[in-house]
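Box 3.1 A note on notation
Throughout this textbook, protein chains are presented in two layers. The first layer is the amino acid sequence; the second is a token string describing backbone geometry. Keep the layers aligned when reading.
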Amino acid sequence: MRALASIGTSIYLGGAFTQVAGQARARLAAVDAGTGVPAAWNPGANNAVNAIAVGGSTLYLGGVFTKLAGQTRQRVGALDASSGALAPWALKLDQPARAVALSGSTVLVGAFAKVGSQPQRGYASFADVSAPVVTVAPGVTIQENGRTLVSSTGTWTGSPAPTFAFQWLRNGVPVAGATSARFRITRGRHGHDARAA
């Protein structure tokens, strides 16, 4: 075993092993922290895993491997800690990654000579960027007895967290200066289609 990390009651193991407690596990495994019993979690790697770092519910891995969860990942990759699903984050290192760490949303990786085709000896840092996905849809509510419209941004996942700007439209045309989440309906704005973009 070469790497350990924990989330809640699960301990994640990385190394060159092919079995854990008599169960087939290809260089990655999760075990119960109290009992040591292997979990069903079993994404697998085709070669040794040297390092594991935890970022929320994501495991960032470095090692000798060129495949994680059956898909190409050149010595670094990321997996969902619950499902084992492969995250889109991917780089191409020319030599094994020996260390992985996180600082905020930056992933630090060490021990190689190139990243992709660019010389980068020893260590590098990479932003972990994932596309935003809406979990609660944006919307508009009416307040103050119908005199004010308020736009909400909804709830989104993604890293880094998305930022928002507002522009209210009247009959599809931007309203000058109407760039906040609140839109006051004045006398000249009655009877028109109002939307937030």
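The mean pLDDT is 81. The radius of gyration is 24 Å.
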